[in-house]
TrEMBL record:
<dbReference type="Pfam" id="PF04820">
    <property type="entry name" value="Trp_halogenase"/>
</dbReference>
<protein>
    <submittedName>
        <fullName>Tryptophan 7-halogenase</fullName>
    </submittedName>
</protein>
<dbReference type="InterPro" id="IPR033856">
    <property type="entry name" value="Trp_halogen"/>
</dbReference>
<dbReference type="InterPro" id="IPR050816">
    <property type="entry name" value="Flavin-dep_Halogenase_NPB"/>
</dbReference>
<dbReference type="InterPro" id="IPR006905">
    <property type="entry name" value="Flavin_halogenase"/>
</dbReference>
<dbReference type="InterPro" id="IPR036188">
    <property type="entry name" value="FAD/NAD-bd_sf"/>
</dbReference>
Length: 526
């Protein structure tokens, strides 16, 4: 039996360092003399530098690699994220009616034995004027009042409200690199991979680097970003475009200073619909990260820059945007022979709902738990890995498309084209047909293959004013009085939570301060 003894990760962005840390931590705890993890990164090829918003799964991943939360917050300039505020997605500005909605990370409240609240909200039993998210969780109120999702005394990565983080991508990679090399035993090499030499079966025999000559391993992880140097290059694994469904293929990003040092930091991403896409607006500790994601079929770069500058106003003065090209799609064979692509090298779904890093986490998890494998088993393991990844991509694409195809905006070609049936996957059309008569249920989904739970579908569907007609079924919903009491309780609990949860900026500053004080003490003792 030939075991995998050495893994070489190529690329030192978020994907490369997350995979290296995850693998190294798992290998250390299971077998200290086990698989060696090496990472090679080019000094002269930068990271993408965007990818600042995450998904709640990141908490489990950071806890699993043993990174202290305060150290992470300080090093990555991170803040908390409790959801996404979708502005002008339902209708454009100036048209009467609610144009916006909030997608919170916390699940709808459901008391054990109590009624599921969604049908009663649909039947008009919630206090009038409350959106679905406002009626069933306190998170909308909490973020409106600039409160954090946790208190300083809560354990690392835990708190009363579900959350993720915003961070500076380059700083995050640096924190992971320090943690990986200093604590987890990842071997770091600085070199540019020029090419891969293949053996007679088509597997990678060795990589040739400019600075360090040949490098070998039993398994190669391609984390070279959109270049996809190994998976797309040497292994020629084809890319399946899904640009027919999700049109955005360009981004323009700026790092924007706050207008004053104590400006409130929103603990949510602001995603504002624009004429040919949407802008993201993310609050970090020292600056905002703002960008416009757009479709080059529906606008041009000059107009896109005008839109981004228009969004930012004076704050954009003197700033030059970073320009990025991408395409929604993926390599159905992420894993071929002894090479597996993780991160942008394997694929990407446009950044709405921040699935890029979550897919990296998933890749790191599936890869790590497939090892230690017999080298002869790699083809079977690769097939399984690819099946798992393809299913996730397709489910994510349906969910992202939901945001576009339900919009009532018809003001530009971009929004009109997004509602064309030919651009909506059949799987999504089928679900929408069903949900006209009853709300989504968890059994409509294939369990753990879904990145987004039924609650997220419900928040987006009803935030976008999707119509589910429950009136013919009204008589079957017999717990209206209980549901009304439950709606009232949620509002009372939300009011109390505002006293209990700290201000978001104050919490972040306190956590950073505590980390520095601890690090200073450790330094003094040493
Ligand atoms: P990169 O960051 O590009 O890193 C590539 C690494 O490979 C670098 O270290 C480089 O030096 C190295 N490299 C390249 N070639 C070689 C070579 N030949 N030899 C040696 N080293 C090499 N995801 C989210 O989760 N949330 C978001 O909000 C989000 N926003 C995004 C917005 C946009 C516009 C885009 C395009 C993506 C966004 N993503 C987001 C995706 C996210 O950016 C990526 O998933 C994440 O940054 C991982 O990138 P990566 O590590 O795969 O690639």
């Amino acid at each position: 039996m030939a075991r995998i003894n050495k893994v070489l990760v190529v690329g030192g962005g978020t994907a490369g360092w997350l995979v290296a840390c995850y693998l190294a931590r798992a290998m250390r705890s299971s077998d200290p003399s086990g698989i060696q993890v090496h990472l090679v990164e080019a000094e002269n090829i930068g990271l993408l530098g965007v990818g600042e918003a995450t998904f709640p799964s990141i908490r489990g991943t950071l806890a699993a690699i043993g990174l202290d939360e305060r150290r992470f917050l300080d090093g990555a300039h991170a803040t908390y994220k409790q959801g996404i505020d979708y502005r002008h997605w339902v209708r454009p500005p100036g048209v009467s009616g609610r144009g916006s909605f909030f997608h919170p990370f916390s699940l709808p409240s459901q008391r054990p034995g109590g009624p599921e609240l969604l049908p009663y909200w649909l039947l008009g039993e919630a206090p009038s004027g409350l959106s679905f998210a406002e009626a069933v969780t306190m998170q909308s109120r909490v973020v409106e009042h600039a409160r954090a999702p946790k208190r300083p005394q809560d354990p690392d990565y835990q708190g009363p409200l579900n959350h993720a983080y915003h961070f500076d991508a380059a700083c995050f990679a640096r924190v992971l690199a320090e943690h990986g090399t200093q604590t987890l035993g990842v071997h770091r090499h600085v070199a540019t991979v020029e090419r891969a030499e293949l053996d007679e079966r088509g597997a990678i025999a060795r990589l040739i680097t400019t600075e360090l000559g040949p490098m070998t391993a039993d398994l190669y992880v391609d984390c070279t970003g959109l270049r996809s140097h190994l998976a797309g290059g040497a292994m020629q694994s084809p890319f399946l475009s899904r640009a027919d469904v999700l049109f955005a293929d360009r981004a323009m990003a700026m790092q924007v200073p706050y207008d004053r040092p104590d400006a409130p930091i929103p603990s949510y991403t602001i995603a504002t619909a624009q004429e040919a896409g949407w802008t993201w607006d993310i609050g970090l500790q020292q600056r905002r990260g703002v960008g416009y994601v757009y479709s080059s079929r529906h606008t041009d770069d000059a107009r896109a820059e005008q839109v981004l500058r228009g969004y930012l106003g004076n704050a954009a003065e003197g700033l030059t945007p970073l320009r990025i090209r991408f395409e929604t799609g993926y390599r159905p064979e992420h894993w071929r022979h002894n090479c597996v692509a993780v991160g942008l090298a394997g694929g990407f779904v446009e950044p709405l709902e921040s699935t890029g890093i979550a897919l990296v986490e998933l890749g790191a998890y599936l890869l790590t738990h497939a090892l230690p494998a017999d080298l002869d088993d790699l083809p079977r393991i690769a097939r399984h890995y690819n099946t798992m990844m393809v299913a996730r991509y397709e489910r994510i694409i349906d969910f992202i498309k939901l945001h576009y195809c339900l919009s009532q905006r018809r003001d530009t070609g971009f929004w009109r084209d997004n509602t064309a049936a030919s651009s909506i996957p059949q799987t999504l059309q089928d679900k929408l047909a069903l949900w006209r008569y009853r709300p989504p249920h968890r059994l409509d989904f294939v369990g753990d293959l879904e990145m987004f739970l039924v609650a997220s579908w419900q928040y987006v569907l009803y935030g976008m004013e999707f119509h589910t007609d429950l009136t013919p079924m009204r008589r079957t919903y017999t717990q209206a009085a209980e549901a009304r009491r439950e709606f009232a309780t949620i509002q009372q609990v939300a009011a109390r939570a505002l006293d209990d949860l700290p201000d978001h900026r104050a919490l972040v500053e306190r956590m950073v301060h505590e980390h520095r004080a601890r690090a200073g003490r450790a330094h003094a003792v040493a």
